[in-house]
Amino acid sequence: MCKSNSGHIKMKYLFTILFLSLFSITTVGQSLDSLNNEIHLLGLEKSKIDEKIDSLKAIEFDIENKISEIRKEINQIELQNQKEKGIPAKISSMGGKLRDAPSIAGNTVAELNEGDEVLIYDWFEKPYFKASFEGKAGYISYGSLVENNFIKNFLDEIEVNKLQKLEERNPKLARLTKKYGASTAERLMRKKIWIGMTSEMARDALGRPEDINRTTYSWDVHEQWVYPYGKYLYFEDEVLTSWQD
């Protein structure tokens, strides 16, 4: 009887342990599912927040652009007001003359010394700005002025406008002007060549040669460029040293 009771107790104990184990596994499984589901939901919330942030950033970018445009407009208005009043500029160490006409033949209105301050205006006829000094109006060569931002930007804008017009009229000349400057560009357009010009300049002036004979030494590279009708150009390290027609 005692043995039977003992066996019954043991079986009951084993069933209890097994039940608790199964319950524990089920609970852990449910907990993992719950946590993974929570991570998924939080991820969805984060995605929504990220979308709102991107939207706000786009709005912020647009606002910043509008602010920038308004500031540019303010600066233009302020600059225009300054132009009407005159932009201060110093006379260079060379001194200068305020003349009654934009020409070296103009009569001298005032002699100007280094450090004198004149007011220059939004008017230019190369190389003269309209200017005033101590109540006297006239014209002064920009070569007499210490360059400031107004002068630099003004002259740069003139060059840009000239290039834009040139591009419409003669794209190749405009390209060469940007690359080498106006005087060199004009020579190249006339197919001129000269000692000391670079091989790139020669190519821009005459086009690609029919053939290039190259000799390489330890100290430099010699090239003979062959063009039609017996024209030969000779380069040392890409610099023209002589030619033959």
Tell me roughly what share of residues is in helical segments. 40-55%
Instruction: Name the strands of the widest sheet in spatial order.
Output: 1-4-5-6
The largest sheet is: 4 strands, antiparallel
Determine Rg (CA atoms, Å): 42 Å
CATH class of one domain: Alpha Beta
Question: What would you note in describing this structure?
Answer:
- With 245 residues, the chain is an alpha+beta fold.
- Among the domains are: 85-147, SH3 Domains (SH3 type barrels), CATH 2.30.30; 180-244, Beta-lactamase Inhibitory Protein, Chain:B, domain 1 (2-Layer Sandwich).
- It contains five helices and ten strands, in the order H-E-E-E-E-E-E-H-H-H-H-E-E-E-E.
- It has helices at 2-85, 149-169, 171-180, 182-189, 199-206; strands at 87-90, 96-99, 108-112, 117-125, 128-133, 136-141, 211-216, 221-227, 231-236, 239-244.
- The strands form three sheets. It has a four-stranded antiparallel beta sheet.
- A hairpin with a 2-residue loop joins strand 4 (117-125) and strand 5 (128-133).
- Helix 3 packs across helix 4 (182-189).
- The longest helix has 84 residues, at 2-85.
- It is flat and about 130 Å long.
- The N and C termini lie far apart (134 Å).
